[in-house]
Amino acid sequence: MSLKVKNLISIADLSTKEIIMILDLADKMEPIAHSEKPSKLLSGKILSTLFYEPSTRTRLSFESAMARLGGSSITVADVGASSVAKGESLADTIRTVDNYADVIVLRHPQEGAAQWAAEVSRVPIINAGDGAGRHPTQTLLDLSTIRRSQGRLKDLNIAVLGDLRFGRTVHSLSYAITRFTNRLYCIAPPGLELPNEIVMDLREQGKEIIMTRDLKGILPELDVLYVTRIQKERFPTPADYEKVRGVFRVEKSMLQDVKPNLDILHPLPRVDEIAPDVDETPYARYFKQMFHGVLVRMAILSLLLEANVR
């Protein structure tokens, strides 16, 4: 099995059939991820994680995925300690790193950076987040979590909550989940709504995009509530951030009338948008969600590197 694309820049690069193929393969990776079944599937392969922005879960889960499959990793986690600090361009950095690795996972603050990198790289580029743009592997692990918990992806009531303007995870998820369900609730503070071009694009595809601020009113209808933090680092001034901080907060007391199968997801890190007492409820899926990231990234690496997976 392999993917038709060389690089993974956007969820749009994948057909729905390929998304399902990745999720199915991720499920098969669980015994390997739990150290129950050793694997040398990617033995001799090298992954480079090149991060121009901070990361915990994405970088470590990619490196864990590579190690679980018998490969190895090299990393640039602090570009301030690399030649970037001397003024080296992204293109030159990519041309350097692709001499050392078989695949590059790139996070960059500028939207479109992953596509530029793909145009000069000799090895596959995986977009680990480009500014407020896209984060396709996060979306795939989100879909995996939903499918494993709900038993399906089709015909679910799903809401995205928080910073929908700058939240790249929500941008990718909105396009992906509406391949399977026709309705999406969007809840955001004023000025942080889902970008109009995404809303219009989805509506032109026949999707029902419902913009609301009534979180409590729609909670009983939901199968999935996907929460994101307010992206402080994307705001021009601290004062602009403080105006919207804490506008929406999910608390345990709000969950009395929800469906028993409700999943509350969050790409993490969280700040104050989900109260700690929600962690104790059966609805909290965000830490399990992170483990699914290892499974999905094992599947993606295997498929992009055309490993012989059965």
Topology (elements, then pairings):
Blueprint: H1 16-28, H2 30-33, E1 46-51, H3 57-68, E2 72-76, H4 90-97, E3 103-108, H5 113-120, E4 125-130, H6 136-150, E5 158-161, H7 168-177, E6 183-187, H8 196-204, E7 208-212, H9 215-218, E8 224-227, H10 238-244, E9 263-265, H11 286-304
Parallel strand pairs: 1-2, 1-3, 3-4, 5-6, 5-8, 6-7, 8-9
Helix pairs in contact: 1-6, 1-11, 3-11, 4-5, 6-7, 6-11
Please compute the radius of gyration using only Cα atoms. 19 Å
CATH superfamily of the largest domain: Aspartate/ornithine carbamoyltransferase
Largest sheet: 5 strands, parallel
Q: Indicate how many domains the architecture comprises.
A: 2
Q: Could you give the count of β-strands?
A: 9
**DSSP summary: helix tally:** 11
The average pLDDT score comes to 90
Helix content: 25-40%
Order of helices and strands: HHEHEHEHEHEHEHEHEHEH
Descriptive overview:
By secondary structure, the chain is of the alpha/beta class. The chain folds into two domains: 11-134 and 291-304, Aspartate/ornithine carbamoyltransferase (Rossmann fold, 3-Layer(aba) Sandwich), CATH 3.40.50.1370; 136-289, Rossmann fold. It is built from eleven helices and nine strands. The protein has helices spanning 16-28, 30-33, 57-68, 90-97, 113-120, 136-150, 168-177, 196-204, 215-218, 238-244, 286-304, and strands at 46-51, 72-76, 103-108, 125-130, 158-161, 183-187, 208-212, 224-227, 263-265. It has a five-stranded parallel β-sheet with strand order 7-6-5-8-9, with helices on one face. The chain has a four-stranded parallel β-sheet with strand order 2-1-3-4, sandwiched between helices. The model has no long low-confidence stretch (mean pLDDT 90).
